[in-house]
Amino acid sequence: MKIKWITTFVMAFLAMTSCDDNTDTLGNSLSNEVDKFAIITDTFNVSTRSIAVDSVLSRSSYTYLGHVKDPETNTYVTSNFSTQFGIAELLIESPLMPKLDSIVSRDAKGQIVADSCFFNIFFNSYKGDSLNMMKLMACELAKPISEGRDYYSNFNPEKEGYLRNDAGAIVKDKIYTFQGLIGTDSLRAVSIPLNDKYIDKEGNEYNNFGTYLMRKYYEDEANYKNSYNFIHNVFPGFFVKSTNGIGTMGEVLITNLQFHYRAYSNDSIVNAGLKIGGTEEVMQTTNIINDHERMKMLAADNTCTYLKSPAGIYTEVTLPIDDIKRNHENDTISSAKIVFKRLQSSDQGEFATPNYVLMVPKDSMYTFFEQRNLPDNVTSYIATFNSSYNTYTYNNISSLVNRLWANRGKSDDWNKVVLIPVTASISTTSNSSTYTKVSNDMELKSTRLVGGSANTHTPVTISVIYNKFSSVGN
User: Fold this and answer.
1) What is the DSSP secondary structure assignment for residue 112, as one 8-state letter?
2) Separation between Cα atoms, residue 337 and residue 398, nearest integer Å
3) What integer pLDDT is reported at residue 449 of this predicted model?
4) How far apart are CA 247 and CA 69, in angstroms?
5) CA atoms lying within 13 Å on the CB side of residue 441
6) Residues 80, 134: contact at Cβ < 8 Å?
7) What SS3 class is residue 179?
């Protein structure tokens, strides 16, 4: 349903109420007195539908591990992850380890050894019951997951041949719960001991994995000069998969390798060690496994539309660009506002409502993330969920409307945009807030929006304000 009204004296009113001694002739200096603005508003219906996506770019700040049931599809979602371990390259040379002759921990042959070694996984948060018994398997990678390409959430290092599968490979199971792992006072880890005999890819045997790491350092300190050297010359990383248990999904904050030894320090023997961290500065990937066929069935529900992560359902929006511009080809669109109303979900289980939702042209729904773009309020926008009004509001997408009109017909999807759940990093100053990173949301999120071809609620609309020149008198 359209609503149209025209106000021809608004600009004159604004001129009278805003002028002072210094500005009372400004309007006359800019335009002829007979040229007046007419402000026109109009409202147009917008069509929406759900589209299922089989994978999303795996480049978020966090990785995820766990296995949960999706109450909306009655299927299961499993998240696994891979991680490398990085070493910051120091601007000033500073050894990571003491001199070789100061190491006290040695075997019967006098060779240096590590007293213990652990692979630690620190979680930032979790969804589900903290008492659920979960089981993971940490598998040694045979080769680095290299930079220089984009990895999507359907990338599975095990199926792609990245895992070391000979008899000497590290393969460790660990049963854990989240009870006591997440707290405000301290951060505890799921700690996986690596204290058994280890055989490297060349067949060399060590009493534990920490001993291997130590000896690679003293073999050539350049192995630890930077992350690239460590990943390629010492250890390419782990693939960690959820193998048993149900009902909990954890958000991994960081991982690290940690080994301990004893050494002399000022004529005393002290306990020492080294931690090598796995953070977003090195390659990490999240592998999502879910039932894509059931996801497509959910997306086919045309009584609403969905926003669902991880991979995932988006809402596709067809903007009525032709209708908006018809008879207004030479007018200026000063505002175009669209609001998406959230429907209360009957059962989201542990799935939270997406907080940030990106609007981007459908033709850019993948390249936006691949190119590490940020919302520019020209062709891409972010709306934040308003829990008071239960809405996502895009206050002014007029630049997008104009851009789509300029590119009309250049593709089949020229007038379509997509709503995508995202995570966002924000830098805030006293004057403004700026998005510094936007990634596909890999957390369990889901919500339904008013829309779809069989929508029984108030239609989704876009409200447009035009500025039109008109002549008044002669």
Assistant:
1) B
2) 8
3) 97
4) 7
5) 24
6) no
7) coil
Residues constituting the chain: 474
Tokens of 249: 């999904």
DSSP-derived letter for residue 460 is P
The C-alpha torsion from 131 through 133 and 134 to 137, rounded to 10°, is: 130
pLDDT, tens digit (0-9, with 9 covering 90-100), for 179-224: 988 865 567 899 999 999 999 999 999 999 999 999 999 999 999 9
Write down the number of H helices and E strands in the chain: 8, 25
Q: What angle do CA 465, 471, 474 make, to 5 degrees?
A: 165
DSSP state of 88: P
Tokens of 368: 């936006």
Q: Which tokens sit at 208?
A: 């534990």
User: Do residues 310 and 288 touch, judged by C-beta distance below 8 A?
Assistant: yes
What is d(CA 302, CA 300) in angstroms, rounded to the nearest whole number?
A: 6
What's the pTM? 0.87
What Cα–Cα distance (Å) separates residue 315 from each residue in 48, 53, 417, 449?
7, 11, 9, 8
The answer to whether 285 and 151 have CB atoms below 8 angstroms apart is yes
Could you give the angle at the alpha carbon of 353 between the alpha carbons of 352 and 358, nearest 5°?
Answer: 130
Those residues whose C-beta lies under 8 Å from the C-beta of residue 25, and which sit 6 or more positions away, are: none
Confidence of residue 19 (pLDDT cuts 50, 70, 90): very low
CB-based contact 179:103 (threshold 8 Å): no
Q: Is the dihedral of CA 66, 79, 438, 381 positive or negative?
A: negative
Q: What burial letters (b/e) apply to 372-382, b meaning 16+ CB within 10 Å?
A: eeebeeebbbb
Judge contact between 114 and 215, C-beta under 8 A: no
Task: Point out which residues pair with 306 in neighbouring strands.
Answer: 448
Cβ contact 239:157 at 8 Å: yes
Measured between alpha carbons, how far is 31 from 371 in angstroms, rounded to an integer? 43
Distance (Å, whole) CA 87 – CA 99: 19
